[in-house]
């Protein structure tokens, strides 16, 4: 069920696309972030480098470059973390590095 909610949230972000205001896109990212870190979002920011950074109330965090990465995160969450979310997730130039909430860590190529 959680995966279905995550998929719906990611779909909403993708449909919102460029037509949404900055505030609307931020709200969409926060909604998706909630499903990926399994907690309320404590902080959300987008830096000058374009990266989106999210810190959750359970001290989970992640950093992504784009909305498309959120879709990938949702797939990774289901495949590697059994839909339970991440304690951290970082997008690197050639791979993703993350730790599931069950403390399993992975580095996978893009």
TrEMBL record:
Q: Which UniProt keywords apply?
A: Signal
Please state the span of the N-terminal signal peptide per the UniProt entry: 1-22
Q: Which PROSITE patterns match?
A: PROKAR_LIPOPROTEIN (PS51257)
Q: What is this protein called?
A: Lipoprotein
What is the organism of origin for this protein?
A: Photobacterium galatheae
């Amino acid at each position: 069920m959680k995966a279905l909610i995550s998929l719906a949230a990611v779909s909403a972000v993708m449909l919102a696309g460029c037509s949404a205001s900055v505030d609307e896109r931020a709200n969409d990212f926060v909604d998706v972030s909630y499903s990926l870190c399994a907690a309320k979002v404590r902080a959300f920011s987008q830096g000058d480098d374009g990266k989106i950074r999210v810190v959750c109330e359970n001290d989970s965090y992640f950093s992504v470059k784009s909305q498309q990465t959120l879709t990938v995160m949702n797939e990774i969450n289901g495949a590697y973390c059994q839909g339970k979310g991440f304690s951290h997730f970082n997008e690197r130039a050639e791979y993703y590095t993350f730790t599931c909430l069950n403390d399993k860590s992975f580095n996978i190529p893009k």
